Amino acid sequence: MLCKDLKVVNLNITEDNYEYKALFRLCTENVCMDVDLGQLENGEILQEIKKSFSIEDSLEETKNIIIEKIMEASKLESRISEGEDCCGNVEDKAVGRSIDSLSMS
Questions:
Q1: Is the Cα torsion angle 13, 14, 19, 25 positive or negative in sign?
Q2: Phi and psi for 24 in degrees, rounded to 5?
Q3: Which of 13, 52, 66, 83 has the highest CB neighbour number within 10 Å of its CB?
Q4: pTM for the full predicted model
């Protein structure tokens, strides 16, 4: 099997004081494995992935393909909101309903 045939699912990326953690699941139709992105630096986890999924690619290719798949799966947008538009939609909807109920009566 080639590494490109693996699927990355259940991706969960968290950040705490600029320390990012990513947990995800590698899957095929028959086999699944939970992995922490930090473990990919460890050659043992890459060996385990290759063995579990019978991957033909080299360790470096496997690592690069998995990271690429994680990036595709995440499609994160980086933006700073710092409270902007907080709860504005809730209030606007309530006001909108009040206006609509007045115009109907």
A1: negative
A2: -155, 170
A3: 66
A4: 0.65
For the stretch 9-47, pLDDT in tens is 888 888 888 888 889 999 998 899 999 988 888 889 999
pLDDT in tens, 42-76: 889 999 999 999 999 999 999 999 999 988 888 74
Burial of 50 (C-beta count, 10 Å sphere; 0-12/13-18/19+): middle
Domain that holds residue 37: 3-104
Instruction: Report the sign of the C-alpha dihedral through residues 69, 70, 74, 76, in that order.
Output: negative
**Directed axis angle between helix 43-53 and helix 59-74, to 10°?**
90
Q: How many independent structural domains does the chain possess? A: 1
